[in-house]
Design brief:
Rossmann fold; alpha/beta; seven-stranded mixed beta sheet; GMP Synthetase, Chain A, domain 3; binds xanthosine-5'-monophosphate
């Protein structure tokens, strides 16, 4: 089959590129940079992915240089673009860091930009930039801050983009990838149905005469995976277990019970292990540590349930609803930096995956494809369109702390303060940290908070400029529902049941708000995050984090009418344990969707 190979330099988006190419009905596969050329016989084109390194780092993945002389079209993206420049004798320099949208002026729309406008919105996420072009390359696109944003060598059919066409925020990125595929003269003969057949066969071969024991959270992924395993193997060879870990949403467990009996699954057990989860995470604040403990506790709970049921581990494999992004952000591709460890990718499970003991029918798919598949399998729309909810649940939405704050006095540069003042905004920094992703690397930095004016356009611009200009800020929030920002201090707080109950209440109120205002299908996900920040040590703070996304690899913060939002903030402030409400106005990157 005609194939476009994506060479994976560890960027967040290597798999996303392949996924996008497949959506064009063209087969795409991922390969390591030192791949043997013999393994690329069906190659019609090569895409070099982005990556977390600089091209001059000593530890960059070794590349097989023969890739450059295969005489087929090549497209380099971000790190791949810089690699092409270095390979052919140009210059790359550490320089202006850029994260977010930019306006690309197209200087030649005869080839890869065919059919596009004079200017296009593109998505940038890079640290280094090209400083001088190699011979025989010309510029075909530039932005205000990036003079070599798109380059082309006509003799060799090699293209380089500093930006990411594979993310939805590059408005016509798909058209650019399709133009590239046309330049490669690829046949469009790959289909999701064929891919599904493959997976059916693969799972049958992997499971052989064994059975599969699977943890089912009731979310979209695990429900679709469970349904699929039931179809492939039959109900008597699959057993599901839903664990109440103490981090579920309000009434979540009851809902799972109802849904599963409504859809006639008789092979699902529900057990309460919340005491164990709360005991194991007691006194832990560091997000990665929390995630690892929770992942491990899931496995221990599954083990103990299997023992109690008298299931022989030699006869049973572990089923998981892992999807592509879970493995990528956990550093699952060979070169990817760990952004966060997803609960289903902790070391213990990674070892089991290596031994072939884990069955993951969705591991190649993105959320939208999982939904498509769910519909195909006959699951109802309201189940398939549920907002995703992370495996570790509210544990990663209730931020914890030992109460000792970092020194944040010099985090903001004075220029940023001046810019905000000019726009009629006040700005401050919150004494807490959250996870983010910048230029393919994990960040763990402070949020800035702005207040004093409500204006979405202004928020959008100021948020990007604040995170670009302040290396220790990876997120910006706007305060809502109050005029003055209290002097918020970090307080000691862990995963205590009463804190989780507080968050459960607010989270339920926020989800009701989305339902009542018909926003559930417009907003893709809306984490409600509890921050241990208060002025007197008694109360806490809340962050609302609604996002619009397609693939969850990148996202924009959602803009909800201020009138509605202010009412919601008022409702939240009516809970006597909440002091301040913030609204997250950070895109992903640089902020991840979740705060941990
Ligand atoms: P981030 O926060 O990385 O989230 O932008 C991307 C998507 O992944 C979900 N997420 C998880 N899902 N286990 C999961 O099953 C996890 O450990 C986990 N962490 C994040 C997140 O809710 C969002 O949809």
């Amino acid at each position: 089959m005609d194939t476009i190979y994506v060479i994976d330099f560890g960027g967040q988006y290597a798999h996303l590129i392949a996924n996008k190419i497949r959506r064009l009905n063209i087969y795409a596969d991922i390969k390591h940079p030192c791949v043997n050329i013999d393994a690329l016989k069906s190659a019609k084109g090569i895409i070099l992915s982005g990556g977390p390194n600089s091209v001059y780092d000593e530890n960059i993945p070794k590349i097989n240089n023969k890739l450059f002389s295969m005489n087929i079209p090549i497209l380099g993206l971000c790190f791949g673009h810089q690699l092409i420049v270095r390979e052919f004798g140009g210059k790359v320099k550490p320089g202006f860091k850029e994260y977010g949208t930019a306006r690309l002026a197209l200087l030649d729309n005869s080839t890869i930009f065919k059919g596009l406008a004079e200017h296009e919105q593109v998505w940038m996420s890079h640290g280094d930039s090209v400083a001088a072009l190699p011979d025989h390359f010309k510029v075909i696109g530039k932005t205000k801050d990036c003079p070599y944003a798109a380059i082309y060598n006509a003799q060799r059919n090699i293209f380089g983009f500093q930006f990411h066409p594979e993310v939805t925020h590059t408005t016509h990125g798909m058209a650019m990838l399709e133009n590239f595929a046309n330049i490669c003269q690829c046949r469009k003969d790959w289909t999701i149905k064929g891919y599904l057949n493959d997976i059916f066969e693969k799972i049958k071969n992997q499971v052989k005469n064994k059975k599969v024991f699977m943890l089912v959270s009731g979310g979209v992924d695990s429900t679709v995976a469970f349904t699929m395993l039931n179809k492939i193997l039959g109900e008597d060879r699959v057993l599901g277990l839903t664990i109440d870990n103490g981090f579920c949403r309000k009434n979540e467990i009851d809902q799972v019970r109802e849904t599963m009996s409504k859809y006639n699954f008789h092979n699902l057990l529900i057990q309460d292990h919340s005491d164990t989860f709360l005991a194991n995470t007691a006194g832990v604040a560091e997000p990665e540590k929390k995630r690892n403990i929770i992942g491990r506790t899931f496995i221990e709970a599954a083990d103990s349930a299997m023992k109690k049921l008298g299931l022989n581990p030699d006869q049973w494999l572990l089923g998981q609803g892992t999807i592509y992004p879970d493995t990528i952000e956990s550093g699952g591709t060979k070169n990817a930096a760990v952004i966060k460890t997803h609960h289903n990718r902790i070391d213990m499970i990674a070892e089991m995956v290596k031994k072939g003991l884990v069955v993951e029918p969705l591991v190649q798919l993105y959320k939208d494809e999982v939904r498509e598949l769910g519909i195909e399998l006959g699951l109802p729309e309201e189940m398939v369109w549920r907002h995703p909810f992370p495996g570790p649940g509210l544990a990663v939405r209730a931020l914890c702390s030992n109460g000792e704050a970092d020194d944040i006095s010099n985090v903001l540069n004075p220029e940023t303060i001046k810019i905000c003042e000019k726009q009629g905004l006040k700005i401050s920094v919150l004494p807490i940290r959250s996870v983010g992703v910048q230029g393919d690397v994990r960040s763990y930095a402070h949020p800035a908070v702005i207040y004093g004016k409500q204006d979405w356009k202004l928020y959008e611009n100021i948020s990007t400029s604040i995170t670009n200009a302040n290396p220790e800020i990876n997120r910006v929030v706007a305060m809502i529902g109050s005029e003055t920002l209290p002097e918020l201090k970090l307080k000691k707080a862990y995963l205590w049941r009463d804190r989780l109950d507080m968050l459960r209440q607010i989270d339920a109120a926020v989800m009701d708000f989305l339902e009542e205002n018909n926003l559930i299908r417009i907003i893709w996900q809306m984490p409600t995050v509890l921050l241990p920040l208060s002025s007197n040590g008694n109360k806490e703070s809340i962050v609302l984090r609604p996002v619009i996304t397609r693939d969850f690899m990148t996202a924009s913060f959602a803009q909800i009418p201020f009138a509605l939002l202010n009412n919601l903030a008022e409702d939240i402030l009516a809970f006597d344990f909440i002091e301040t409400v913030f609204f997250d106005i950070t895109h992903k990157p640089p902020g991840t969707i979740e705060w941990e």
